[in-house]
Amino acid sequence: MKRSGGGGGGTAGDKKKGRRSYADSATDTPPKKQAAKKDVFQIFAEKVRDHKDLESRWAVLQETRVEYFRGKDFVSFLRNHPETKDLLESDKNLETEDIGDVLLRKNLIVRCDRVVKTVRPGKRKLSTWPAHLELFEDQVFSDNDAFFAWTFVNRRPLWQTLLSFCWPVLTLAICLFPVYPLQVKLLILYFCAGVLLLILCLLSLRALVFGTLWIILGKRVWFFPNILAEEATLKELFQFWPKKDEDEHPKWTARLFYALVTVLVIVLLRHHAPDEAARARYQKRVSNIIDDVLEWNPRLALSGMMDKQTEVNVTGSESNVGDGGKVGGDNMAQPQDVEESTISDQFEEEEIRNVEETD
């Protein structure tokens, strides 16, 4: 009777209302089936992480750099790509919240929270993608301002592995630049100079457009907004359309101040600009440096070393001759010193005799 009563109580507890997480039911499965499901969810997590439609960022979590995504983005991703659930095989009919709970239980993801929870001065709202995260106390999936970081190391594609073997070859090719033919040196020089000039012009144009629109209209417009991003794909790197300005509208006093500073800097640059003679001297100096780099080759370097060694030998022989002459001079000077000392002694003896005679 007690057993039946206890069993009846347990059955009544299982019939309570509310969503039962899949993590609780998974504990009753056999070990082999559970291991198979773990492999399925691992494959699912790797596929979702590598998918380009799931937006993610990089942040620092307890002094560790991690890749994370938002809960609402995960929900919308599975809603727009239901075929991804087919990787779960028998568990493909699970709800998005249940899938998230299983990923948390299997330590494939971990729920995080933003470190800065207050709006900073000059901002309207909290950052959409915070750069610093901390562990959240309740490890339950949610799509309400929740962040989740991947805990496993992402597998590198084959092309990245093959590309890693090319870096030593590229490094060796850079080191061998001085021995390249002149035509190859000119090609590399013009290519690098063109790329550098393109980057500088692009950054200058971005700054000019931003400064003009910020001073005149008070709007922050950055063309190619991700061009200086540390972590960005090629598609995001060359995204031309600027992001929406979410910051507070600048004050007119600040805009006026920076406008005056800009005008003052332009006037000073024009007043202290170098003249034509100084520009020609600087151009000649740079041209000489470039010519020295382009015209260098091992034969000239070896001949220059031989000439330098010859000069050193000639200089050393001349110094030896000079030292010998000096030594010889010193040797010749010794009898003269002896003679001078003898004369002085005779002079002193004559003076002594004269004094004695006088006395």
Keywords:
single chain; 359 residues; 12 helices; 5 strands; 8% strand
Please report which band the strand proportion falls in: under 5%, 5-15%, 15-25%, 25-35%, 35-45% or over 45%. 5-15%
- State the separation between the terminal residues, measured CA to CA: 159 Å
Helix content: 55-70%
* Average pLDDT metric: 76
Radius of gyration using CA atoms only: 42 Å
Can you count the helices?
12
Biggest pleated-sheet summary: 5 strands, mixed, barrel
The spatial strand order of the largest sheet comes to 1-2-5-3-4
How many domains? The number is: 2
Residue ranges: pLDDT <50 for 5 or more in a row? 1-28, 31-37, 325-336
Element-level helix/strand string: HHHEEHHEEEHHHHHHH
Record field, number of beta strands: 5
Provide the structure class: alpha+beta
Give the overall shape. extended
Pfam families: Sec62 (PF03839)
InterPro entries: Sec62
Subcellular location: Endoplasmic reticulum membrane
Membrane topology: Multi-pass membrane protein
